[in-house]
Amino acid sequence: MRTISKANTESAAELPLQGLTALVTGGTRGIGKAIVHNLAALGAAVGFCGRDAEKLKTVVAEVQARRGKVLALRADVTRESEIAALIDSTEEQLGPIAILVNNVGIGGGGFGAIQDKTEAEWDQVMNTNLKSVFLVSRAVIPGMIRRRGGDIVNISSLAGKNAFAGGGIYCASKWGLQGLSGCMAEDLRAHGIRVSTICPGSVATEFAGRGPKDPSKVLTAGDVAHAVAMIVCQGPQSFISEVQLRPVTKP
Question: Which fold is adopted by the domain 17-245?
């Protein structure tokens, strides 16, 4: 599925990302959807992917209503062949990818005592939360190296820094993401490419976590999108390597 809206006509002074192309994985709901909206509002041409065709259409319509430029593509970012098509279509129709936000992630099978988990649950969480970041980043990085710059923002979690009962697989995926991101940052900074992680605490979304959340004691998807904007709008000499986000009131 592919849909492109009309170009944003706001002035360049109000659109710090005008002329840049961003790609967001998992952009049809929750944090990803908020990031798509925010980057488009800042002037970027935004490609995003998901696996639900109807949700892709819904987000496109919402962004178009605000005159944002957006491209929706159906893709499974745990599959290398689908990633290649995703990158090619995005760059062909929107331009070279300057901003990559690896947002896609799941909880579900990642929660529960490790002795009760299955190999299939391990593979699903690891493939979605960690392998996808490796595959998509690897596909985008060569172009960023040629252009001598770019931002890669990986949406991690405070679970990538803190252990808790029942979090074995999920925490392992996010601890792995922290390690991967840190090494990527060191590999790529000499090429002018910044790799950053955002580690939110509990966020009020549809994400299948450890249980119901009190809306008054959690972050919003918009809070995480704001952090992404802060990273990609920083000055060229600056490098925000990690952002930790917590709700003011402890859950």
Answer: Rossmann fold (3.40.50)
